[in-house]
Each structure stands twice: as structure tokens, then as C-alpha cells.
Amino acid sequence: MTLLLVILIPFLGALIPPLVIRSGRNACAAATGGVTLLALALLLSHAPAVFSGAVPTFGVAWVPAMGLSLSVFADGLGFFFAAMILAIGLLVIVYARFYLSREDPMGRFFAYLLLFQGAMVGVVLSDNIIALLVFWELTSLSSFLLIGFWTKRADARQGARMALVVTGGGGLALIAGLLLVAQAAGSYQLSDILLRGEMVRASPLYLPALLLVLVGAFTKSAQFPFHFWLPHAMAAPTPVSAYLHSATMVKAGVFLLARLWPVLAGTDAWFLIVAPVGLATMLIGAAIALFKDDLKAVLAYSTVSHLGLMTMLLGFGTPLAAVAAVFHIINHATFKAALFMSAGIVDHEAGTRDIRRLGGLMALMPITGTLALLAAASMAGVPFFNGFLSKEMMLEEAAHTAYLGLDFLFPVLATVAAVFSVAYSARFAIGTFLGPARHDYPHHPHDPPLGLWLPVAVLVVPVIAIGLFPAAVAGPLVALTASAVIGGPLPDYHLALWHGLTPALFMSLLAFAGGAALICAFRQADGVRARLPRLDAKAMFEAASGALVVACRRIVAALHDGALSRYMGVTVATLVAVGGYGFWSATHAPGARSLLSVTGPALTAFLALVLASGGVLLFHGERLTALILTGVVGVVVALAFLQFSAPDLALTQIAVDVVTTILMLLALNLLPKTTPREGSRAVRWRDGIVAGLAGLGVAGLAYGVMTRDGTSIADFYLAQSKPGGGGTNVVNVILVDFRGYDTFAEIIVLGIAALAIYALLDPALKGAAVRRIKAMLPRDEAKDAHPLILVVATRVLLPLSLVVGAYIFLRGHNEPGGGFVAGLVVAIALIMQYIASGYGWAAERMKLDAQSMIGAGVAIAGLTGLAAFAFGRPFLTSTFGYLHWPVVGEFELASAMAFDLGVFLTVVGVMVLSLAQLSRVVHRVDPAPESHEPMDVPLESAASGAAGKEG
Amino acid sequence: MELLVAAAIGILTMVGIYLILRAHTFPVILGLTFLSYAVNLFLFAMGRLVIDRPPVISPEAAGYADPLPQALVLTAIVISFGMTALIVVLALRGYLETGSDHSALDAPRRPDGRGEA
Description:
The structure holds 2 protein chains of 2 kinds. In chain A, about 70% of the residues lie in helices and about 5% in strands. Chain A contains 43 helices and 4 strands. Chain B is elongated and about 60 Å long. In chain B, helix 1 runs antiparallel to helix 2 (about 25-45) and helix 2 (about 25-45) packs antiparallel against helix 3 (about 65-100). Chain B is built from 3 helices and no strands. At the A-B interface, helix 29, helix 30, helix 31, helix 32 and helix 33 of A face helix 1, helix 2 and helix 3 of B.
């Protein structure tokens, strides 16, 4: 549990700094440091167990059936990395407290830093690879925030974007890669996968998995040719550079290579790809670093170079090289973080990071100068410093590595890289601190406050201690970590200063001589470099991403041109093509189900449907005609439902058709009454052919299914309807009981649609819309606005309709009917009042708030469902019982009935709201003269003062 | 009988698709209505066609039609009303705001002039 907390504490702690910053910068930094310290203490509480060889684990199952869990484990490698992340994080927090200026939002900074810290610890401690991938992406995202922290600076934004694109893109490859590894190993748990290396390497998925994983690792660790993002990420504040780009995030790629080393390493493919990529990165990074003038750029390329070194060592695939890699990870983290912090101090104090403007700072800031020189010596690989030891081991490994039969390639190029490494370290140290003091620094440099140099000093201690007494200081840690990487017995190795007269020693000496020569001849070397062609990675990246954006715009513009008909056309044509392909590539046989014989009425109805559909097809320009013909089709569909044993559907269909037709008539009142003939004949034929093919396909599919027997889960519902749901109308029981959740969601959707209609029409009553409606007035209306017979009929029918509605509602559980149909019937009765008597008249008398009805309906249905909780049952569990009423007799009461009441209210509310809103549009712009008579009178008769009162 | 129903579904689909490919809103709305009919009938037909056997439990019944597609279609009918209503109102609002009932943006500037008429 504490192990999981190590990950969770930084995430939760990220909330603290933005709150505490009000109490001051010290409090903010102290709170952040406290969070990190707590996580570190919890982690270290596992140290005795880890060092004794145990692997603490903790897991929470999530979807066990799919192998998903949030599980963590701390073997040597994970423990070491987590400790490094948290320990250096602590130093960086102290340093950042003094580095950030008053204008920088420190609360935000520390919040980002803790997010990053949590993500990073998550990466190294995760046991489940899905969790690992999530944390991996989180490191990319949080580092984006940190690199772009100074949001006002263009280079910070560009650098952050570039880092995100490269590492995020690599992360996508990694997702695919790790999933393939999991597939090959048959487990999502890293601890299982690590034991199944043989299985993965023998799998046909091995090579694609390896390539994808390597893309993820190489992008994260800035390996050639993805190295270009790291120097641009230096636009980040220096604490970020020291933390992310020396000790932690860029090491995530190396961590991954080390983590999967027992699984993926040891094959030819691994060696042939990973080793040369590491070598190239080491060489290129070191060479570029020499010629950079910005201190942070020197360090950035140096980091690239050292990451290459680690990658190369892991790429060798031998246990001895893996030990060297682990040792160098430890060493590099200490001296490089110290150097980044020193560079930040110089920048802070002297006002510039340009080597050409610096020099002689040793006299002015002796503490910083001393610390930086010690760390730089380690970076150069000077004996008695820790960098020397691991570099010796690297050279030793390179010395006897042959690549494709070329036994000189690795030794020579590794030595060349070491030459550059000595040279840039020397240039960094000499150019900044040595030589005579100058008088033209932008600021007046002197040693910074304790808070800035103390973290550097803390980091320099291990640099020297390990350098002098490697076996005593770092021995146990290296052994612990390396054995976790190798996953087997450790090779025979010695962490020592003196190994005798080895090839590595001669290569080192050669490197120092070459490095010294290169520094002496720096001007000439720089001249040579200036004449060489150079690739500007940033410009290439920007050009590539710009071209990608343009290409995407073109594709979108072609597909998404703002014409609905095109989207629909493309979609339907694609469906037809896919369906057609499926049809032609399959075998066909006639169905064996016995068919129903055609009856006269059925044929008549079918012909009516064909004629009406054909009429709509041909005459859809005449909108009113088309609408009426559509109504005919709706009636035939309802009859079909009735014929084929679906009385509920027939009722619903006919009621909905009535409402839909009224709705469209109301809309048509304000829309143009005709559609002009559109498009060329060719276009119409093309659309017709696509539509015809689609129709043919759907008809064929329907026929194919209907002529075959199939299995259905209907028997369950038929059997359980009465005993389980307490109703005999199975359709209604399914709606309100078995599938009540669906229905509940559906009435919510309906309610939302009605509210959207309200929102769309309510503000329409001003501006251009009003002018347009007014321009349509006076409309060519029927002379008799509210025909007397219609008025009387609807008012007489209203109470009858309400009774019918109630009846349909009540019997719904056992006979055809129910909330949906009853709601429709009642809604129609109400809407008819608007139509017959006019909006003003009806609205004044009908004090129904449709919105409240929708709300009440959804609430009643929801509360009915919640009531089940009171009895300890899941949401929407139903119950029913029988009451004996004195006169009526046996009476059933089901909780589903309350649910159905909710459905009923929602349906009524939705229908009334939609249609009343439509009627209101015209009424609001041009209110009809109000009548206070019990009956609205025909307008012309009102003038003569006759007929009206008689109704 | 199955052939008639299948043909009806096909015709409704065809008319629906032809209409939603038009460049004015009202035919598109009618097309959606036709497609709703077609889809509802199609779903319903997946329960196979049965005459005189409504899924209402009674001791005399000789058998029952499949109730599940019926329940699905019942909600589909009501939902498609909600959708149609919303689209009708969208079209109306669009027409009132712009004075055009084209279903395409920038009708006059479209290269093939389909939205022009």
C-alpha cells in the first residue's frame, strides 16, 4: 500500500502548492518539499526489504478478466530510479525556490513539478504495462507544461510543442509495442513478462514489438535521429532542465531499455539496432556540444551524448555492459544535475550563459566555481571522479565489440566521442570559470545564497565519494540495480579505480591528449565546422509540421466542404461499397423458413405505400403535397405493425405520425412552400442510383433474415414477464422493467431535445428573424382562422381524450398501451387546443409548464429507480403487489407504474413544449387580437358582432 | 408477405436516401422521416413476421411474436420524433436567421452550383 502511495502522494500533493502560495514562497517550497520528502520516506521504508532481495508489490485489481490492474512493484531497478527521481526532485525544489523570480507563478510551477514527479515515479514502479503507458504519457504532458512554463516566450512554446510531438509520438509507438510484447508474453504484468523473455523472443511478434518499443525509448531519451528536441527544450527554466533533462525524464527511455533488457535484449536485431544508434548519438551529441556557446546548450548536447553512451551499453546486450550502463546512469545523474544547476547560477549571477562573454568567474564566485569544476571533471572522465569509472567500463566494453565483422568501429568511434567529451568539458570549465576576471558581465556576479549552491554541493559529494571509493559507496546499489536489469546472476566485475594497463586506459589517455589538442586548436576546428553543411533540425521540424497541417486542411476541405449532401453521399456510397463487397465475397442460399401468404388488404396497403413513396420522390418540390403523402406512408407502416402482431407499435406509430405532421405543418408555415428543382439531371441520376443500390441492399438483407429461422432471447422475457415483472404486456414490461435503464436514458434524451428546441426558438424572436417573419405577414391565410366546428370538437374531445389517455396508461402493463402511447394521446389532445383556438387563447387557459413536466417526469422515473436502493437492491429494481379494493376488486400496484408515470409526463412535456414553441414564434411577432369571449370568433364576423357568442 | 415487407423497406430506404442527398432542408427532413420508417420496419422485421400473436401473455395464446424488437422499435419511434423535431427547428431557425434553407454552407460559392437554385 505504501508503495502505491509513493506514486499517489505527488499527484495529490500537486494540489497543495497553488493553495499554499498565498502564504508565501517559502511556505510553498516547503510544502512541495514536504510532499516529496514524504514520498521518499515511504519509498525508503522498503529499502531494507529491497536490499535483502525481496520485491515489494502491491496491486488493486481493476478489470481482472482483461488482466488490467493498478499494480506496483519495486525491484532493484524500479527502487533505484524512484529513489533517484525523488531525491534529485527534493534538491531541485530547494534550488527552484531561490531560482524563480518574484514574477514567476511559483505555485503553478511546483504543481507541475509534482505532477511530473508522480508520473515519473509511476513509470518506474508500475507493474502493469497499461498503467506504465498511462504514466509514460503523463510524463510527456507534464513536461510539456514545464518546458513551456514561461508561456510568453515563443522559444519556450515551440520547444514545448516539439518535445510533446516527438515524445508523445514516440509514446504512441510504445503503446503498440508494449501491447505486442504483452501479447507475445501472454500477460500484462511486467513481473510476468520479465520471466518470459524466451517466449517473447521466439514469437513472430518480436521484431515489430522491438521496433515500436525502440521508437518510444529513443524519442524519449533523445537518441539519434530524434535527438533534436532536447536542446530546444532548454528554453525551460533551469530547475526543469536539471530535473527533466539530466536526471529523470530523458532517462525514462534508458529505463525502459533496461527494464525490458531481459525480455528483448540478447538477439542480433537488438544489438544491430540499439548499439549503433547509441554510438551515433554519443558521437554526434559530443561533437555538437563542443561548438555550442550557450552553457545550457553545451550541457544539453552533452546529455544527448551520455544518453547515447548508456543506450549503446545496453545495446551490447552483455551483462557486463549492462552493469556499466547502470553505473553510468547513477554517475551521470549526479554530475549532470550539478552542472545544470551551476549553469543556472552563472546565468542568474552574471546575467548571461554565453561562454564568449564569460570567464574568470572563479575569483568572483569561488564556491560555485569549485563545485562546477569538480562536476565538469567528472563529465570529462578525469580519474578520481565517478564519471571516469563508468567511462572506463564503457571503453573497455567498446574495445572488444565487433560490429558486423568490423572490430575497429566501436573502439575508434567511442574514443573519438571521448575526445570531444573531454574537449567540451574543458571548454565549459575554462571558458566560464578560469582565466582572468572580466569587467563587462551584464551583472555583477558573486556567490549566490546558500539555497542555490547547497543542492549543487549535495550532488558533488557522491561525485567524489564514488570516484574515490566506488565499491564501498556505490557497490551495493549497482549490484542491486544491475541484478534487476540482468534478471539473472551478476557477472564478475570490479568497481575500482585501477584495473591495470587495460585497452580502456590507453583509450582514456588518448582521449585526454586529443581533447587537449582540440581545445588548443578550437578556433581552427570551429572554422572547419562553419564550412561544413549543417542541418537545422528545428526548421525541418517546423516545415514538416507545417506541411502536415496544410495537407490535413486540404483533406478536410475536400471531404468537409460544408455541404450536407456531400457528407451524406460519401457516407452512403461507402456503406453501399462495403456492403456490396461483403455480398459478392460471400456464398448465398435461399432461406428455409415457411413464408406467409399475401392477402388482398396487404397488397393494397403495399401499393398505397409504393404510390405515396413514388409521389414523394417525384413531387418533393411541392412541400405540402409531399408532407401529406408522407403521412400516407406512416399510416401504412402503422398498419403493418398492426398486421404483424405489434399493437403497441401501431398505436405509437399512428400517434407519433399525428404529432410529427402537425409539427411539420407549423414549420412549413414559416418555411418556403416549394423546393426549387436543384442540380443537374446527371447529379439527380447519380443520387438516385446510390439510393437505389442502398435500398436494394437493405431490402435484400431484410428478406434474407425474414426467410430464415433464428434464435432469440425472447423466451426469457416471455417467461419472466408475469412472474418477474408483474405484467402480461411483454413489450411494456420490457420497457419499464427489464430494460428500464434504457428507457430512463431515453426520456432524458427526449427531454434534452425538447429543451434544445426551446433554446433554439426562444432567442429567434429578435433581430433578422423577426424582420423576416414580419415580411411574411400578412400571410395568405384561411379566412376562417379558427373554424367553429373544429373549436367545438376539440373542446368536447379534450376530456374524452384525457380519459382515454388515462385508460391507456393504466392498462399498459397488461394490455397494449403504456406511458409512451398515453403521453402521445394526451399531448395530441392538448396540442389540438392550440391549433383550434389559437396560441393566445390556449396558452392563457392552459397553465401547464411543459419544462416542469419534463423535469418532474425524469425525476419521478429516477426516484423510482433510486427507491430500490432503500431496499438494498440495484438501481431500478422493480416490485409489485396486489391490493384488494372494496368495489373494484383485485388491483395490481407495481413500482414500474410509477416509472411509467415518469415516462408519460416526460412525453407529454416534450410534445407540448416543442409544438407550443413553434406556434409561439408567429404569435409573439404578431399577436392575434385577444378575445375575451368563451369562444374565439372568426375575425370578419367579429366586425359585424354576430356568430361568436353563440358557440 | 415477407417479400412485400422487404420491398417496402427497400423503397422507403431508397426514397429516404435520395431525399437526404438534396440540398434543401425540408426534403432532407422528409428523407429522415422515411429513413426512420425504413429502419424501424427493418428492426421490427428482425423478429420475423408473425400474424395474430401479439406478445401479451394469456392462457389461450397459441404463441407470441418476439417482444424484444418491438420494445426497441417503440422507443426508436419516440426518439426519432425527438430528433425530427429538433432538426425541423434547426432548419427553421437557420432559415429565419439567414433567409436561406440550403443544407450547405455558402451555397452561392459552391463550385458545382448545386446549392444555387
